[in-house]
Amino acid sequence: MNQNIEAIFLDVGNTLRIVVEDPEFMVQAKKDLMTLVGAKESEDEFFDGLETRWKVYRRQSKGTLLEASEKELWTKWLLPNYPTETIAPLAGKLTRLWRDHDGRRVPRSDAKETILELDRRGYILGIIANTITETEIPDWMESDGLTQYFKAVVLSSIVAIRKPNPEIYWEAARRVGVEPSKCAYVGDNPVRDVEGTQAAGYGMMILMMEPATLVKEPPTVEVKPDYTIRETRELLDIFPPRR
To answer: pLDDT tens, position by position, for the chain (243 residues)?
Structure first.
């Protein structure tokens, strides 16, 4: 245990929330996305093209550690052949539907109770997440009654910087007024989250061992988090009461 930790920042995707396959929900999201933009192609053609352009964008963003805004993502990368004036105002809705076509995102069963207990124990809490959406995470926090517990929410889609760039971690620390050495980070990526946290000089890194992440992005190098957990509630064994 590190008694010097004052602030705990958490990832969201596959850390506080997981993706659950819901075929009906996913099919409807695809239909709604096509309807929203007035797509004329078949569903297969439309989504094959989107997936191809999405992969190009992901390679670029991971290589540069920069994230596009929602409007830039859709007008420049994903639907460049559609009129900008039509697509730009729809960018927020398009992003949500694009994410929904992968499945329904639900909180881990023990996430809320753990967040409330860490707050009760005296820790400053925040979010640092790589995400293409600008509103989904704040909306989830609001609907689950968690907004008041997070002093800083730093999203790559808004600050235009992606993990593992240490600047996104420094920005979060600045927003809560805590030195990086007194901050901890909880994330699920066994390489990116560990490297970024350590490069930023954070005092602790906790890896959430999530099978879905390991399948999608298996580690290519050996990394050493300070702790490895499998359930959110295990954070309570790491962070004792500060008051």
So the answer is: 556 999 999 999 999 999 999 999 999 999 999 999 999 999 999 999 999 999 999 999 999 999 999 999 999 999 999 999 999 999 999 999 999 999 999 999 999 999 999 999 999 999 999 999 999 999 999 999 999 999 999 999 999 999 999 999 999 999 999 999 999 999 998 888 999 999 999 999 999 987 776 777 776 667 789 999 999 999 999 999 987
DSSP at 184: E
Which residues 6+ apart lie within 8 Å of 146 measured at CB? 112, 115, 140
d(CA 92, CA 189): 26
Q: Both tokens of residue 123?
A: 């820790």
Measured in residues, the chain has a length of 243
DSSP summary character for residue 160: -
Peptide bond into 83 cis (omega under 30): no
Residue 183, CA distances (Å) to 8, 22, 179, 225 in order: 6, 36, 7, 14
Classified as helix, coil or strand, 191 is coil
Please name the residue that has the structure tokens 């609001």.
142
Calculate ∠ Cα 70-151-177, nearest 5°.
110
8: nearest Cα among 148, 149, 163, 217 = 149
DSSP-based three-state secondary structure for 97: helix
